[in-house]
Amino acid sequence: MCIMHITSGLESKTLMKAALVRGAGQTPVYADFPRPNPSAEEKLIKVTAAALSPLTKGRASGQHYSSASHFPFVAGVDGVGRFADGTRVYFALPEPPNGAMAEFTVVSADRCVPLPEDLEDVTAAAIANPGMSSWVAYKRRAKLKAGETVLINGATGAAGRLAVQIAKHLGAKKVIATGRNPESLRTLASLGADVTIALGEDQAALESNFRKEFASGIDVVIDYLWGKSAEVLLNARAEVGGEVGPTRYVEVGAASGAQINLPGALLRSSAIELMGSGIGSVPSDCLVAYIGELLQATIAGGFKIAVKSVPLSEVETAWSCDDNATRSVFTCSKRRKSEGCSPRPARRRRVVTLNTTSSLNKTEAL
Fold this sequence. Notes:
- The protein is of the alpha/beta class.
- It has two domains: 3-115 and 303-355, Quinone Oxidoreductase, Chain A, domain 1; 132-276, Quinone Oxidoreductase, Chain A, domain 1 (Alpha-Beta Complex).
- It is 29% helix and 27% strand.
- The protein contains nine helices and 19 strands.
- It has helices at 54-61, 121-142, 158-169, 182-186, 203-216, 227-240, 264-268, 284-301, 315-321; strands at residues 3-8, 14-21, 29-34, 42-51, 73-74, 78-82, 88-92, 104-108, 112-114, 149-153, 174-179, 195-198, 220-223, 247-251, 272-276, 306-311, 326-331, 344-345, 350-355.
- Strands 4, 6, 7, 8, 9, 16 and 17 form a seven-stranded mixed beta sheet that branches.
- β10 (149-153), α3 and β11 (174-179) form a beta-alpha-beta unit.
- α2 (121-142) crosses α3 (158-169) and α2 packs across α8 (284-301).
């Protein structure tokens, strides 16, 4: 492990408030951090809203495959804010040590898209990441066509619930939703689910239900869970064989487990097209462009997501209280006038410790 101690005179720098990650696995703290200066290719953004997503948590913990390896850095992978000229934008993937959960950030200009006038900042920030997970999977990876049948494995969380709505918006004829929470499953019919399957059933009953649906034809599977339920799904599809058309199986998340047992014969004996969707499988500029499409469609599509707005100053408490069904969105807290969201000049020297140790094993998808 290499620890570098860098003494920097911050008298000439300007400070801002941010959710600061000081080490792998540590909860971000609300602290001062130098306000970034944009390069010629970047835009300075005054942040208004940044959502707490599984991707944000995974990166902060050091366990996501795209995690930063140097500390400290600002948490947050995307958000909503304004350019200096007042243009309201969604932005994604600031380069570390910068992040979205701060009063200001800098982002490459090609990772920003303008927001529709009638879409509120907090709603846009909440819906972008979970909605993107299925929007990109449908349009870029699975290439969903109107009239096809979709199965969403793990549809009771924020991303899965949006996946149901987006499938219908994009023209899916039939949407099958699975989940572990029976109460949450029952609410999915109002969002467009035609069939629901509880994952809490015994394995024999679950396999029977999956075989029945695959025999009727499932064109696209969007999987947020992976793990055991993915094994059951893939086995059920293989048992149906080639009597039905191909199934494009898109792995998006790994909430139930990072690995599965996948015999090679299963793929050889069935028309399963297995792929993933996330950072790396789709170029970052394409991801942002697809998010722009999603945000433009949000009002017309009537997409719904449960949102909780939280002041950024409460990041330490809200970080651990976040749940899968409701998306927490951090906003610039209201403070005394003298401590508003304007940057503050530093008054003293301080020591910044950078840990250059590689991040932990990164196995979670998305």
